[in-house]
Amino acid sequence: MSVSSVEVNKKPVSIWRNQSFLILLSSTFLLSVANRIYELLLPLILLELTNSSVAVTTMRTAELLPNLLFGIFIGVFVDRMNKKRLALWAIGLQAGLLLCLAWMLKIETEWLVPYYAIGFLLMTCNYGYFNAQVGLVKMNIPTQYLNSANAKFSFIETFVSVMGPVISGLMLLLPFFYNGVLVTAFAYALCFMILSRLSHQPEAPRQARSSFLADFREGWDAFRANKALWMMTMFIMVLNSTMTVVQTTVVIFAKMELGLASSEVALVMAAAGIGGMAGSLLSSKLRMSWGLGVLFGASAIFHMAAYLLMYFSNDYHMLIIALFISGLATSFYSVCAYTFRLEQTPSELIGRISGITGTFFRVGMPITVFASGWVMNSWGTALIFLLAGMVNLIVFFVYRTTFLWKLR
Predict the structure, then answer these.
(1) Is the pTM of this model over 0.90?
(2) Domains of the chain, earliest start first
(3) Residue-wise over 86-102: b if at least 16 C-beta within 10 A, else e?
(4) Considering 118, 196, 199, 302, which has the largest number of Cβ atoms within 10 A of its Cβ?
(5) What does 346-386 look like in DSSP terms, one character per residue?
C-alpha cells in the first residue's frame, strides 16, 4: 500500500456524510418544532382559560417534576435497554398524549388537573427520550465530531426557536387552539418514522447478572470521581433554575403586563431564537479561541445582562433586545454544558451519567418555578427578572475562582 493511499484513508470523513447523524439531526429538527409550538401554546392557552400566573407556573412545575422524581434512576434503565427502541416508545407515547390534549381542547375542558397530568406524562416520556438520544449520539457519532455535532444540533434547535414562535403565531390566528397541538402530534409521528430508520450501533457489553442497584452505584461512583463534571453540574443546577423561571415569566410579562396579543407574544419570542441561532454559529469558534471554561462563564454574564434589560423593559422593543441576548447566552451555555458532559462520559455509562447529571441540572427548577407564580401574583414579574440577574452575577464570580474557568 502506498503512502498516498494511507493518507487518503486517514482523511476525515465529513459529518454530513454520516447517515446516523443526518437521521438524528432530522429527528431533532422535528421534535424541536413540535416542542417549541407546544411550549409556547400551552401557557398562552392556560392564560386564556384562567388569566392566572399561578395556573401557568403550576403547569410548568408539573412538567418539571418527572426530571426530579425519576431522572436519577432513568439513566440506569436507558443503559440496560436498547436505546433506539426506548426512544421510539417515548416518541410514540408523546404523540398519543398530544392527541388526548387536542381532544380536551376541542371539547373545551376547563378542569385543570387533566392538563397537569398530561404535562407530567409528556415530560416523563420526553426525559426518557432525551437520555436515550444522548446515548444514540454518543454511539453513532465519532468523538472528534461531537463538538461540531452538538453545535449543529444547537443550531437546528435555535433555528426552530425562530420559526416555532412564527408557526405558533399563525396557529393562534386559527379559530381553535387544538390545531397547534395536532400539528405537534403529527411532527412526533413523523419523527417516529424517521428515527425507526436509524441503524443502531451494538450496545456495549454488559454483565448479565448485574443488579439495578449495582448499575446505579457504578454510574454514581463514576460521576463523583469526575471532579470537573460534578462541579460543573452544580453551577448548571443554579443557572438552569434562573433560566427556566425567566422563560416562563417572560411569556406572562408580555401577555399580562405589556398587553400583547397571544400571536404577538409568539412573534416577540422569536428574538430569543434569532439570538440562539447567532450563538450556535459562533460557539465552536469562541470555544477554540476562549476555551470552554471562559465561554461557559461568559454565558452567565450575558444572561445577567438580558435579565436586567427585562427588568427595565416597559415596551416590547427593549424586550426584543433582551430576548436576543438571552438566546445568544443560552446557546453558548447549552453547547458548553452538553458537549462537556459527552466528552467526559464513556459510552457504557452515558445513560446513567446523563440521568444523574440531568436530575441535578433540574433539581431546583420545580421549586423555583412554582414559587415564582406566587411572587408574580404579589409583586409582579419585575422582581423575578432582577433576582435572576443577581443570581447569575454571583454565580459568575464564584465560578471565576474555580479551575473550571481554565478548561479548554
Answers:
(1) no
(2) 17-200+212-406 (1.20.1250.20)
(3) bbbbbbebbbebbbebb
(4) 302
(5) -GGGHHHHHHHHHHHHHTTHHHHHHHHHHHHHHH-SHHHHH
